[in-house]
Amino acid sequence: MSNGNIRVAVVGAAGKMGREVVRTVVREEGLELVGAVGTRPAPDAGVVAGIGEIGVPLSDNLQEVLVNRKPDVLVDFTRPDAAVHHVEAALALGVRPVVGTTGIPGESIRRWDAICREQNIGGLVAPNFAIGAVLMMRFAKEAARFFPHVEIVEMHHDRKLDAPSGTAVKTAEEIVSSGAPIRSGRPDEKELRPGARGADVGGVRIHSVRLPGFVAHQEIFFGGMGQVLTIRHDAVDRQCFMPGVVMAVRAVMTYTGMLYGLEPLLR
Ligand code: NAP
């Protein structure tokens, strides 16, 4: 920290989420953008993010940014294979990772938790930084206790690389952790075309739609006798993720270990 500001570097800074993070960090009081990393260098990350010059170049060398710009926090919105390397590079230098990239394997998160504890630093991996989506997961966990027949439909833009979405998987895990006896369809049902019944996460079926026109949306259907309860969240603009990202950047400065999901910060 310098002048009490949290020094933030962003990797994936030329991407859709990364540019939004650059714009947010620059205007957020108490945060200071000290580094920006992408696959192609550019003279100024602010110009790339559409806010004009900010005096922070877009570098293609994460290691150089970590060593020379000395961020307190590295925010990663890239792709899962790359993010794993970025986080390990950050942790090796005691830089706290805030990871929005989805599709990170659970074993990596567990390993990073151990490293964070050794280094006495905090980190966070969240499949969804939208506070509305986190509440959707919380409410779903509660509903599953009374409505154990549940299925998830998630809808995203057609450029998304991973399916099912990290949010859908996390939602299913939360529902399973309610201890409810999850039910979905008949045990002897036949899938006449592979995938017709969706992905199975702990017994919860997830159906993934990928179409232009969508941003990030999810519906959770709870079926009961003569009634259906639907919980739905729509991310209609990437700005919806930014309050959660800022919350995480501030929070990782205050605890030790790697958290998975924003939920623990919303108690
Ligand atoms: P995007 O527009 O494709 O941006 C990803 C950026 O990362 C691109 O600029 C890409 O550069 C860059 N990149 C890839 N590998 C890199 C590397 N090794 N080093 C540096 N930069 C690298 O995708 P997006 O929509 O921003 O999404 C990014 C990730 O965030 C995805 O995993 C998505 O699922 C996730 N996401 C999470 C949340 C959340 O709330 N947690 C919300 C929305 C999205 P090139 O294009 O040159 O490869």
Question: What features would you highlight for this structure?
Answer:
2 domains; 267 residues; 5-stranded mixed sheet; Rossmann fold; alpha/beta; 12 strands; binds NADP nicotinamide-adenine-dinucleotide phosphate; 8 helices; Dihydrodipicolinate Reductase, domain 2; elongated; 7-stranded parallel sheet
Notes on the protein architecture:
The chain is an alpha/beta fold. The protein has 2 domains: 6-125 and 239-266, Rossmann fold, CATH 3.40.50.720; 131-236, Dihydrodipicolinate Reductase, domain 2, CATH 3.30.360.10. It contains 8 helices and 12 strands. It has helices spanning 16-27, 45-48, 62-69, 80-92, 106-119, 131-144, 166-177, 242-251, and strands at residues 6-11, 31-37, 58-59, 73-76, 96-99, 122-125, 149-156, 199-201, 204-210, 216-224, 227-235, 257-260. The strands form 2 sheets. Strands 3-2-1-4-5-6-12 form a 7-stranded parallel sheet, with helices on both faces. Strands 8-9-7-10-11 form a 5-stranded mixed sheet. Helix 5 links the parallel strand 5 and strand 6 (122-125). Helix 4 (80-92) runs parallel beside helix 5. The mean pLDDT is 96. The chain binds NADP nicotinamide-adenine-dinucleotide phosphate. NADP nicotinamide-adenine-dinucleotide phosphate is lined by residues 11-12, 14-18, 37-40, 77-79, 82, 100-102, 126-129, 241.
Helix-strand layout with pairing:
Elements: E1 6-11, H1 16-27, E2 31-37, H2 45-48, E3 58-59, H3 62-69, E4 73-76, H4 80-92, E5 96-99, H5 106-119, E6 122-125, H6 131-144, E7 149-156, H7 166-177, E8 199-201, E9 204-210, E10 216-224, E11 227-235, H8 242-251, E12 257-260
Parallel strand pairs: 1-2, 1-4, 2-3, 4-5, 5-6, 6-12, 7-9
Antiparallel strand pairs: 7-10, 8-9, 10-11
Bound molecules: NADP nicotinamide-adenine-dinucleotide phosphate.
